[in-house]
Amino acid sequence: MKFSAALAAVAFAVAALTATVVVAQQDPIAARQALMKANGRNAGAVVKMVKGENPYDAATVKAAFDQWDETADKFPSLFPDNSKDGDTRALPVIWTERAKFTAAVAKFKKDVDDNRAKAMSGLDGLKVALGAVGKNCTDCHETFRKPQ
Ligand code: HEC
Question: How many Å lie between the centroid of ligand 1 and the Cα of residue 35?
Fold first, then answer.
């Protein structure tokens, strides 16, 4: 009984994984929004530590930096020409000034990588690191995302 439950859980996880991959191929808008939602969740968790609402937790910090890094790797390929319109806040400037957008993603990745060790060193380091990384969120949204 226990065994089959575990097996079912694994099967479900694999199915969910496959679904994510299919979504990314068929619906780049949903895929990039899912990555950004995760960005937001991770930023929220880290901000809580910086504000002193939660204690510093290295595993949470690492998970955030890993996920931001992964987002930066995947993000540029999730803006094909057929994903300009639809339920998206992506601004047309992404497609008209693609090099600028790609550079913004690359800068985000570099700042994530450059600040990872600092963030892992403890709360004081995290405060500095979050400032450097977080600026990318705001800067990119100002230029490439429709205000709500
Ligand atoms: C290089 C550009 C860029 C960077 C860097 C970036 N974002 Fe975004 N973000 C976007 C774009 C473009 C959208 C709109 C996507 C869409 O609607 O298709 C977005 C959407 C979002 C959303 C809304 C997701 C939804 O649909 O509900 C959140 C939350 C978000 N970003 C958080 C963050 C956080 C937090 C960071 C920094 C850790 C970050 N973003 C960094 C470009 C960026």
Answer: 8
CB atoms within 10 A of CB 42: 19
Question: Is residue 137 in contact with ligand 1, taking CB distance under 6 Å?
Answer: yes
Q: Is the CB of 79 under 6 A from ligand 1?
A: no
CB 63 within 8 A of CB 44: no
Number of Cβ atoms within 10 Å of the Cβ of 78: 20
Average pLDDT, the chain: 89
Residue from 33, 63, 31 nearest 145 by CA: 33
- CA of 114 relative to ligand 1 center, distance in Å: 20
Q: What is the mean pLDDT of residues 69-74?
A: 97
Give me the half-sphere count of Cα atoms (radius 13 Å) on the Cβ side of residue 8. Answer: 5
39-45 mean pLDDT: 97
Quick one: pLDDT band at residue 19, thresholds 50, 70, 90? Answer: low
Distance between CA 99 and CA 80 in Å, rounded? 14
